[in-house]
Amino acid sequence: MSRPGPGAPPVVACLPAWNAERFIERTLASLAAQTYPNLEILVSDDASIDRTPEICARFAAADRRFRLLRQPRRRGWIGNVNQLLAAADGKYLFFAFHDDPLQPAYVARLVDALESNPRAVLAFSDVEIDHGGAERPVWRYTELDGVAERLERGRRLLRRAGHWWIPNRGLFRAEAARRVGGMRVHPGGEFQADWPWLLHLALLGEFVRVPEPLVRKTFRPGALHLTWRGTPRQWLGAGLACARVVLRAPLRPAERWALAASGAKYLWWHLNRWLARRRSRGIP
To answer: pTM of the predicted model, to two decimals?
Structure first.
């Protein structure tokens, strides 16, 4: 096991787990293989009814960097994430999703990116996509590359161009996460809860992209995001959560109105798209 290196800022991996016995072991192994010398791996099992807690406990017994929290009752994805954020004690944090393994240099490369840019609150990498086939394309989110102005960062995240969710697989400053206050369930439930989360972070500081595929995103049947249907109620709830971020952010009135207009335009476009799909299927 690696020992903390002199001057290496503490990093905490926050892994929310639930009924993941079929795939979590390779993710835990990828965390154990990280080359960064000052890493804690904090796993929170959300009252799983399979072997997930036993698998996590085995890693914790073998490697003191691992710490396992066991929730006495099901909290849901957002509740479990917030338990991890409250328990994590480090300069930098990241979400380690239970079915997305990491390259060994993931933490080291992203820490370097944040340490090199004090204006940045989040560093992320490109993502290798695993659909279960032989080909694994690399997806990139370049919309925020070099964008130093907060209003423009907010506009670009609100319009959700490209693979906007990729930065949520990145490393962020714990101080920024405390200012955001964790993730929140909105009137549409947990649907797209990382959208207002990332928007809030983008209004606090820059995002830095490391142009290497350091994360493998696994698309598998039964994944949580596949259960979200994207109804108007869910989209409106996510949009209202973004509006809450904009209203509470330290912005000038003109900036606030500009961001509100960008968000409303996107939601109107999405609602019309949803209605068009229903009409094409003959649904009134």
So the answer is: 0.90
